[in-house]
């Protein structure tokens, strides 16, 4: 491990913050740069479900399988990281619940007694939970700073300093920040940055609706995901919901969807005396073209490292640790083999 290796992390969302925290903890000289504030991008509009199941063949199953364990580790290392491990109750979709996770109506009533029409069967993932993505990101940045990391917000990256096939720093309005490695964790801003380096990565800015409600506390006990709604309650008693983006028509604007979703939630649950939207907005998720995270060095260009993925919240803890080990130890991690950027640049 190279103590004092200079690392510039571009992006102060939950992925960049996790990367900065783990790098600084390994002795790197870290500078985090963001064009906005900490957690001001898609992290601020994340439903933040730590969801580790996947219905299709999954090239990153090994990452998902340890994602929850890594968050328990972070809770031990950073006491300010507080995750609600309520479990997730899922039903009403086209897929049948896995037998190992299947619960009966009697158990569903115990888990969610306010459901008006509990299904005959559902899938209950007791180990899953959700977090406050903004608060967790701030905790990771604070943890990185405790190890000496520097934070530059409202500082846009204008370009890169290179020497041959080596990136040696980033250019900002404040001047050049020299680096041994530049790590790009800028979410949907990542393709524009890699394009400056000659490697335009195919990352879609995929929209989703994020909603925050004022509603009676204590009604929703788990995280409920069904055909009508996806809803959970935060530690502060705020209800959070997520919905698909349906287009730009007036009746599909976030405020309109928030009202429709509120009615759907009220139809599903007893005891709702009021449910009022506090916030409804669109978040842009960075989803690689093939759906697989992009993690690793750009091919043929030393001194770069990309971390772009969805779901960023679920994978932030494990990817932050594994990527920091690759950057600091110069040793490839087999669990990240399917995620390499070079798959988009075969030549």
Arithmetic mean pLDDT:
95
- Note the gap between the termini: 31 Å
Count of helical stretches: 7
Number of domains: 2
Cα-atom radius of gyration = 21 Å
**Could you give the count of β-strands?**
20
What best-fitting shape do the alpha-carbon axes yield? elongated
- Return residue spans where pLDDT drops below 50 for at least 5 consecutive residues: none
Helix percentage? 25-40%
Q: Would you tell me which CATH topology of the largest domain applies?
A: FAD/NAD(P)-binding domain
Give the topology string: H per helix, E per strand: EHEEHEEEHEEHEEEEEHEEEEHEEEH
**Class from helix and strand fractions:** alpha+beta
How are the strands ordered across the major sheet?
6-7-5-15-16-17-14-18
- CATH class membership of the largest domain: Alpha Beta
Task: Describe the main β-sheet briefly.
Answer: 8 strands, mixed
Q: Would you identify the CATH H-level superfamily of the largest domain?
A: FAD/NAD(P)-binding domain
The CATH architecture designation of the largest domain is 3-Layer(bba) Sandwich
């Amino acid at each position: 491990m190279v103590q004092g290796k200079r690392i510039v992390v571009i992006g102060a969302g939950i992925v960049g913050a996790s990367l900065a925290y783990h790098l600084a903890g390994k002795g790197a000289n870290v500078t985090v740069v963001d064009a906005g504030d900490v957690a001001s991008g898609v992290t601020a509009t994340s439903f933040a479900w730590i969801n580790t199941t996947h219905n299709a063949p999954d090239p990153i199953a090994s990452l998902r399988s340890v994602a929850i364990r890594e968050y328990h580790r972070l809770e031990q290392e950073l006491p300010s990281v507080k995750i609600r491990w309520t479990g997730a109750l899922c039903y009403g979709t086209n897929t049948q619940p896995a037998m190992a996770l299947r619960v009966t109506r009697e158990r569903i009533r115990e888990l969610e007694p306010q459901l008006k029409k509990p299904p005959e069967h559902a899938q209950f993932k007791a180990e899953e939970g959700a977090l406050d993505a903004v608060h967790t990101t701030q905790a990771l940045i604070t943890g990185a700073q405790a190890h000496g990391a520097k934070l530059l917000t409202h500082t846009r990256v204008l370009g890169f300093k290179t020497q041959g096939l080596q990136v040696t720093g980033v250019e900002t309005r404040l001047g050049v920040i020299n680096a041994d490695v530049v790590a790009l964790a800028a979410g949907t801003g990542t393709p524009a940055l890699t394009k400056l380096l000659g490697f335009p990565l195919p990352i879609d800015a995929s929209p989703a609706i994020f909603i925050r409600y004022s509603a009676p506390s204590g009604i929703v006990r788990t995280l409920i995901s069904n055909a009508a709604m996806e809803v959970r309650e935060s530690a502060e008693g705020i209800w959070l919901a997520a919905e698909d983006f349906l287009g730009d028509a007036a009746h599909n604007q976030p405020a309109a969807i928030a009202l429709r979703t509120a009615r759907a939630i009220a139809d599903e649950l007893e005891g709702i005396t009021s449910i009022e939207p506090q916030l409804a907005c669109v978040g842009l998720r960075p989803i690689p073209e093939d759906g697989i995270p992009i993690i690793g060095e750009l091919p043929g260009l030393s001194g770069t490292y990309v971390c772009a993925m969805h779901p960023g919240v679920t994978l932030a803890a494990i990817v932050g640790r594994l990527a920091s080990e690759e950057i600091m130890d110069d040793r490839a991690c087999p669990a990240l083999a399917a995620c390499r950027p070079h798959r988009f640049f075969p030549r």
